[in-house]
Sequence to fold (563 residues):
Amino acid sequence: MTEVARRPRVSRGWSRPRGGSRKSSTAPRPWLAALPPVVLLALVFLYPLALVVQQSFQPDTGGTSLQPYSDVLGSEAFREALWTTVWLAVGATVGCLVLGFVLALIIAFVPFPGARSVARFIDVFLSFPSFLITLALLFIYGTVGMANGLWTDVTGAADGPFRFLTTPWGVLLAEVTYFTPFVVRPLLAAFSQLDTAQLEVAAGLGARPARIIRTVILPEALPALAAGGSLVLVLCLNEFGIVLFTGAKGVTTLPMLVYSKAILESDYPGACVVAVVNVLISVGLYGLYRVVSRRAGA
Amino acid sequence: MLVHSRKGKWTAWVLFLVLFLPLFALPLLVILAASFATNWSSVLPSGFTTGHYDAATRGEALQALTTSLVTALTASLLAMAVGTWAALAASGLKRRQRRFLDALFVLPVAVPSVVVGLAILVAFSKPPLLLNGTRSIVILAHAVLVTAFAYQSVSAAIARLDPAYEQAAASLGARPSYVLWRVKLPLLLPSLTAAGGLCFALSMGELSATMMLYPPDWTPLPVLIYAATDRGALFAGSALAVVLMTATLIALLAVSRVRSKASYR
Fold:
């Protein structure tokens, strides 16, 4: 894609570029064709977002002021939610990167029968909603789930040791599980372009697998890791379903705070303030992701 | 081949199974197993029953399934129409304008879905457009959320398209609209159906924005699953989740068949 886009620029100094004349022959004013969808998007997406920003400056008492901001930003609940959101997102991203790298490495370089269907399974996995993972974890690690059942059966104790589901660790485990495929997919794409002869040469010269991974594969995988990692970071910052299904009062993230302020407390200015903060963080990071992934060519 | 020794290979595979099975395969299997059970206090569930499916395929649950299907179908058709139009228009633009359009249309991915829900709730709860409490507000929110994916997939497909076909058609005197209908869109059809399937799947599972604005008479399946698990009916919730996954998979399968049929051309 970048190649096609760059071509006209290279030839700009010479005669009229061929690419440009082809484009202009199909429509005299190409931006006119782009106008209807842009207007539509502005009406149903940008205009509502602008109203959220406007409402965040309008407290229920009337008038325009920074009151909602000082109320929300000063509150203990907001600061705790911000901190929980950030450390959960960073933790989950690191977890996804490590796990995704190991899984993609084995799928790509130590192939086994069925490796292809595993890759397809990952695609299907991505099309399921995230809250299913939390639902499943309730049966695996819940108070009367599989793991605790096994423990009580074996030891004869009254209840099992696994009770982390309603803590942030439960959310972290669910997020790592759900978002790892987002790292595996770009990694597999990057690995498929790696020349395996390089690995053979390195191995022939006596390098051990750990060294091959460090000096040959890892540099090749860095762009894909950066792109996948920043996407996962943004998605984790925005994740709502997993946190909602966890149902723990102790785990409140920014999206959860938006929901509880707007729907449960009907405090719309407060919800809008949290929403503005959340959007600023996420969109900023997403912009970074776009830059990184464009560099990576992903 | 990274590992050559037999022992090393088996170590890698065992490591893969130890990581992959409990993390990715187990959750889906567990939900399936739980949907047929009444009790799970040991390693395996107990009390086999198909009663949850009886409940999950009639009354409130059946209505929720229909709601989800109608919402997902309408929202993905809307999103595909707008996304395809925008992607086609963007491909004819200059580099900088196209970048702007790219950024604009993928913005809904970066904005949290909960905030998209809140924004639409705030905007359409007052005149001139009063949609709050209607089913259209849910469909609208879903359409906004999946338009970004439609746009991204279609513009990626357009970038892969060989320009020789449309150039040949145009050089033979075909008008731009004819080239679009008879050359470009048929060539894009496999990617369009694939993108439509993705939109459908995402909309079927959408929970965040829906929680913000669903009216009582338009409850999609994910909301019903949440309501069930929230009141402690985990096993009934699993049956609903299996119904949701099956419906999504059937749609994806149907779409992939369209794709393989079209690729013979």
In short: DSSP finds 14 helices and no strands in chain A. Chain A touches chain B through 99 residues (CB under 8 Å).
